[in-house]
Amino acid sequence: MEGKTIVIGVIGSDVHAVGNKIIDHALTKSGFNVVNVGVLSTQEDFINAAVETNASAILVSSLYGHGEIDAQGMRDKCNEAGLDDILLYIGGNVVVGKQDFEEVEQRFKDLGFDRVYEPGQKIEDGIKDLKKDLNLH
């Protein structure tokens, strides 16, 4: 994974730092260069870090249920910043209440996310998808 930089963080007013640290550790252990923008991060924090580091992907975490609001327009902002080809993933408890995951996944894909992970999904699944999407072996 040498040379592949991944930007991670927790979007919006969410302060769930533990999962963010676990994701950081797992990606680093898998050989990715990780740029962690931390908690309470704006879309611009992710995008600016991706531009500055020539990142291959942005992984957005949200556990407080407002991910759909916080992620509105993020793909458009990525495109405006010249990140048309960047992979955009989101995961966690991204909506309020219990909702059908297939519907939630489709809504986030309609927002421009390439992959959407439901609560409780293992980071190993995301790493496997990253390697596949980045054509890494």
TrEMBL record:
Sequence positions that bind adenosylcob(III)alamin: 13-17, 61-63
Q: Which reaction does it catalyse?
A: (2S,3S)-3-methyl-L-aspartate = L-glutamate
Give every B12-binding domain span. 3-137
Q: Name the needed cofactors.
A: adenosylcob(III)alamin
Keyword Isomerase carried by entry? yes
GO terms, biological process? anaerobic L-glutamate catabolic process; L-glutamate catabolic process via L-citramalate
Q: What is its EC number?
A: 5.4.99.1
Name the UniProt key words of this record, in alphabetical order.
Cobalamin, Cobalt, Isomerase, Metal-binding
- What Pfam families does the record tag this protein with? B12-binding (PF02310)
Q: In which pathway does it act?
A: Amino-acid degradation; L-glutamate degradation via mesaconate pathway; acetate and pyruvate from L-glutamate: step 1/4
State the source organism's domain of life.
Answer: Bacteria
Enzyme category, top tier: isomerase
Gene Ontology terms for molecular function: cobalamin binding; metal ion binding; methylaspartate mutase activity
- What do we know about how this protein assembles, alone or with others? Heterotetramer composed of 2 epsilon subunits (GlmE) and 2 sigma subunits (GlmS). GlmE exists as a homodimer and GlmS as a monomer.
Q: Which family does it belong to?
A: Belongs to the methylaspartate mutase GlmS subunit family.
Q: State the protein's purpose.
A: Catalyzes the carbon skeleton rearrangement of L-glutamate to L-threo-3-methylaspartate ((2S,3S)-3-methylaspartate).
Identify this protein by name.
Answer: Glutamate mutase sigma subunit
Q: Which organism is it from?
A: Haloplasma contractile SSD-17B
